[in-house]
Amino acid sequence: MTTVDLQSLLTLITFLTFVGIVAWAWSSGRRKAFAEAASIPLDDDAPLPVQRSPDEPAEPARIEEVR
User: Fold this and answer.
1) Neighbours of 6 (CB within 10 A)
2) Domain ranges of the chain
3) Distance of CA 25 to CAs 14, 17, 19, 30, Å?
4) What confidence tens digit (pLDDT) does each residue in 31-62 have?
């Protein structure tokens, strides 16, 4: 095989890989997973911690034991 043949083969493999990924991404079986991933930014997050003024002392950190 010459260098040109190897380059052509690599181009063909790369193209087929790309087409396979596009087909997988647009398949109807992935629709539910993509819909869930798309709604992640809209999900409610945990409440933010209370903002304290600089004059108030901070609460001591709580350390929990791991068993």
Assistant:
1) 10
2) 3-40
3) 17, 12, 10, 7
4) 888 888 888 888 777 766 767 776 766 666 67
